[in-house]
Design brief:
By secondary structure, the protein is of the alpha/beta class. Helix content is about 25%, strand content about 20%. The protein has a five-stranded parallel beta sheet, sandwiched between helices. The longest helix has 11 residues, at about 35-45.
Length: about 150
């Protein structure tokens, strides 16, 4: 059964990308909004989104700072940082991808498809065992080594 992918949208109340939420919802995503860095980090912990989109076009919200805070709290979640100008995309923000205004909803959806894990390809099946890789992240590859597995005699 496919579950709805969750997107956390971090933006101020008035923004150049107010159209994002309705477009994403129309495409079938479960969109949660946060208006501040603090709210974004709280939502990240409680909602466990599959993707975070941060709007850096508002002067009162520092997109790169929010992006770094999100990355510090969750190293595996993909992040799209929306920028008003391409020169800002050069700084190290921790974002998976930058998207510069103006852009179309089609371009946004193409970017989301590129970076967001696909549900059907994220389930590892071995016999009756199924591991959903979207829900489980290993702290290190060593944890999956076969040296600790019991031998089948």
């Amino acid at each position: 059964m496919m579950r709805t992918a969750k997107i956390l949208l971090v933006q101020q109340s008035r923004s150049a990308v107010d159209w994002l939420s309705p477009v994403l919802e129309k495409k079938g995503f479960d969109v949660t909004k946060a208006r501040s860095q603090k709210a974004a980090l709280e939502r990240l912990a409680t909602d466990e989104p599959h993707l975070v989109i941060i709007d850096d076009t508002c002067p009162r919200l520092s997109g790169p700072r929010v992006c770094r805070a999100v990355r510090k709290q969750s190293q595996h979640v993909p992040i799209i940082l929306i920028l008003a100008e391409s020169s800002r995309g050069d700084e190290d923000t921790g974002a998976t991808m930058h998207l510069v205004l103006p852009f179309t909803s089609r371009k946004l959806m193409n970017r989301i498809k590129k970076i967001m894990p696909r549900e059907e390809s994220s389930v590892l099946r071995v016999g009756e065992l199924a591991l959903n890789c979207l829900l489980y992240t290993s702290p290190s590859p060593r944890d999956l080594s076969t040296s600790r597995m019991p031998s089948s005699a």
